Amino acid sequence: MSDLTPQSETPTPTTDKITQAARETIYLCNFRVSVDGEWLCLRELNDISLTPDPEPAHEDPKDPIAIERLNLMNMAKLSIKGLIESALNLGRTLDSDYAPLQQFFVVMEHCLKHGLKTKKTFLGQNKSFWGALELVEKLTPEAGEITASVKDLPGLKTPLGRGRAWLRLALMQKKLSDYMKTIINRKDLLSEFYEPNALMMEEEGAVIAGLLVGLNVIDANLCMKGEDLDSQVGVIDFSMYLKDGGHSSKSAEGDGQITAILDQKNYVEELNRHLSASVNNLQAKVDALEKSNTKLTEELAVANNRIITLQEDVERVKEESSYQLESRKALRSDSAADGQALGETRKQLKEETLLRLDVEKELEVQIGMKQEMELSMKMLEKDICEKQDALVELRQQLEDLRTINQQLSHKSQSADASSKQKSDVIARLEEKINQMSGTVKQLESSEKHLVKQARNLNSAAGKLLHLQQ
């Protein structure tokens, strides 16, 4: 039986938090969840006659496992639709505290837990969907990055916590739908972890995987460091999907406008902070580039000095080689010269020639380095100019955002003032109504008194007429 089935009435050793959450949970196997437009309808199975819904013909419509699968699929539809609509209306990146996003992960956790096989370990029985999610790394190599990140996260001690972290990372990567389709298509591998009638093994799992494609339009930034994913209690909050009429349209519109203004103000302040940080980073990069430019200029000056020194050495070697050639001619003309001195002169000439070749090669290398340094200097100057232009544009955008922030603050103040004026007018109207009700009561009492006096006068007149007769 799935984790969503009703538990027995025998008390189990759990914490008070889990016990309270279990009392507030409506178990899905006792109800049929259907979608009426965009709202949730709950009907107890004992009070209605079941007719076959669009379910497979081979399944019994009263089978609790089939009802659980259908209910989970409908809950997933509502959760995904509500999350997409609320995120698009919000118009900014979602974080971990966003309630529809939290409910989506709770519903996905129930879907993945449905029909899990119980594995016996040394510590007892264990049911976790982390083993099924690890299959994605084998089937899709690009999912290995998520699995490695989950294993490297500090503070995760249980497979359940790792599975929850994996779902959040896959949503941020916008690959959750692709990964779910990958493992659902390999039912031969999933059969190791799930019962044959589990949601992941039936067509409802493929439907949920298709619905997850719509979440690719959502941008989420979820920080999991410091978040306790191991001991969270996943309880579906049905109140988010049930109709609740009875709110005043005017007050709702006013609250919506004030909320929108405050959201815009918070967004502008957050954007202002990001732009300030970007300006500081760019300024630091410009300073680093200026330092590197100064260093390269010094190195270029040293290289120029080295080139001048090498050129002087080349001139000296040329003079020495010309002197050696002249001495060689003199030695050739003098046939009586000593043969030993001639050999030493030839050896010295060869050494001087090799030295000259080495000096020329080093000179060519230094000239090439000088050209590369000049090219890098030009590129650095161009990069600095571009960074300065970007810095000017960012500062202009920062000024514009500050102006918008001031305007929004004025609007919020005017909205607060108007709301106070309206509340004062309402208080005065209520005071006038109380005064008018007191006046009406006085008039009613005076009217009764007058009626009584008229009756007395009528009776007296009747008596006078009777006496006159």
UniProtKB/TrEMBL annotation:
<dbReference type="Pfam" id="PF02759">
    <property type="entry name" value="RUN"/>
</dbReference>
<feature type="coiled-coil region">
    <location>
        <begin position="387"/>
        <end position="446"/>
    </location>
</feature>
<protein>
    <submittedName>
        <fullName>RUN and FYVE domain containing 3</fullName>
    </submittedName>
</protein>
<feature type="coiled-coil region">
    <location>
        <begin position="272"/>
        <end position="320"/>
    </location>
</feature>
<dbReference type="GO" id="GO:0012505">
    <property type="term" value="C:endomembrane system"/>
</dbReference>
<keyword id="KW-0175">Coiled coil</keyword>
<keyword id="KW-0472">Membrane</keyword>
<dbReference type="InterPro" id="IPR004012">
    <property type="entry name" value="Run_dom"/>
</dbReference>
<dbReference type="GO" id="GO:0050770">
    <property type="term" value="P:regulation of axonogenesis"/>
</dbReference>
<keyword id="KW-0597">Phosphoprotein</keyword>
<dbReference type="GO" id="GO:0005737">
    <property type="term" value="C:cytoplasm"/>
</dbReference>
<dbReference type="InterPro" id="IPR047335">
    <property type="entry name" value="RUFY1-3"/>
</dbReference>
<feature type="domain" description="RUN">
    <location>
        <begin position="95"/>
        <end position="227"/>
    </location>
</feature>
<dbReference type="InterPro" id="IPR037213">
    <property type="entry name" value="Run_dom_sf"/>
</dbReference>
